[in-house]
Structures are given as structure tokens and as C-alpha cells.
Amino acid sequence: MTHRSLAAIADGLEGLGVASLRYQFPYMEKGGKRTDSPPVAHATVRAGIAEARRQAEGLPLFAGGRSSGGRMTSQAQALEPMPGVVGLVSSRFRFIRPARRCSESCTSGHQRTGA
Fold it and tell me: What is the pTM of this model?
């Protein structure tokens, strides 16, 4: 829960009057290196969103995460939309596979620049 970039994002959001809720996946709580299976990660995302929904008392929710957390959040939302979630926000999330190099034919800026 002390990851520098996540703490900086949460602090920046707080400065704008936006609340955030951070949680850890089970493998992180155990100090492991290997990520949880998608079903376990999806259930963790859903539990985090349920807690955020409870605390937010009807406010719109944006769900997301950093790297694999963003990936698991988007997968969970795609499999079964989470009540109250109106958008997804991800940090350090690849939209193309690292092995695939984008050519001049790529149409979106983030793919051409890697941003």
C-alpha cells in the first residue's frame, strides 16, 4: 500500500477533492511474487469496488489499477459490469503486447508513441 506512484496518485486526487480507495491482491498480502489467478484477482477487484461503493454512498465510481491491477479490473468489468462503476482508469497498463512493435499504420497516438 506504500507504492510511490500509487500514493502520489491518491495524494493528487485528494488535492482535487476526489477520494480513492486502495487495496491489495492476496499474493501481495502474502509477500509473494507470483500474481493471483484471474478468478481470485477478479473477486478481489469486486470486493474492493463493493467497499468503495459502500463508502461512496451513491457517488459515481471509477475503477482501475496499476499494471496487472488495471488489467484485472478491466477484465472483471468486461466479464460482468460492476454496479456503480461509470469508467475505468489504469496506470502503466499496456494496450498492445510488448513483443508487438507498432508500425506507421497504427492509428492511435498512444500506440505510436508508447505513452
Answer: 0.74
Indicate whether 57 pLDDT > 80.
yes
Q: How confident is the model at residue 38 (pLDDT cuts 50, 70, 90)?
A: very high
| Cα first-last separation, the chain | 25
| Burial tier of 43 (Cβ tally within 10 Å: 0-12, 13-18, 19+) | middle
Whether residue 70 contacts residue 77, with contact meaning beta carbons closer than 8 Å, is answered with no
β-pair partners for 91: 66
- Do 5 and 91 contact (CB within 8 A), yes or no? yes
